[in-house]
Amino acid sequence: MLFDTHCHLNFAQFNKDLQLVVSRAGEAGVKFMLNVGCDIESSRRALELSEKDTYFFASVGIHPHFSGNVDELIWKEFEKIACGNIVAIGECGLDYYRLLTPRKKQKEVFEKQIILSKKLNLPIIIHSREAEDDLISILKDYEVKQAIAHCFSGSGRYLDFCMERNFFISFAGNITYPAAKNLRDFAKQVPLDLLLLETDCPFLSPQAKRGKRCEPQYLTYTRDELSRLKSIKAEKIEEITTSNALACFKIKL
Ligand SMILES: [Zn+2]
Questions:
Q1: pTM to 2 decimals?
Q2: What is residue 122's predicted lDDT score, i.e. its pLDDT?
Q3: d(CA 89, ligand 1 centre) in Å
Q4: Which of 83, 114, 188, 200 is at a distance of 20 to 30 A from 212, taking alpha carbons?
């Protein structure tokens, strides 16, 4: 059985056919799904879904794109949602690529989420795009020990940093893209005990389904690609990544 450690079934793209999506996931062997929040509304929805289904888990977070309007009131509201039954904080981090929120504000909201994750003894799910220097220095300053580098992309330096700290490193369907050679090279370097699988659906459909809405059933493409890259049977990749995910999110079945 597979664990999709980062999906967004809490987004409106799945409102119409969520049940079908979940049953297709089940047929593909995807048993567990972690719905990840990006703002107040999607965090609340992730939590709501986790209460409906024992195979859904929730992470609540404020994505750097949506950090701009976080004032004291919104933060208080967020802290309240984080009191629910969640397994991680995030996605959070820094994104200097699109820079929808000024850097200073992104850092402030990221740091607040790190502090909260430590208080709750939960891992953080990190989104990083073209912001590695600041990201690494914040993670060092706060001595972050429990983290997931979600949809890994970036430099060898960032990869080394994550591996040194025993952060989990998660790969998504973009590892199957023809242009993603350096991502595949990175995946080969990641030790099995730090490896996680995710779809980041509705985004990042694997090459075979590119252009379509992504959904958890396509996690098999990422599993199979990692199996090929590491010359390890797909069943073994599945077993290890699911057990890593259960350990990472401290889930007891
Ligand atoms: Zn995401």
A1: 0.97
A2: 98
A3: 12
A4: 188
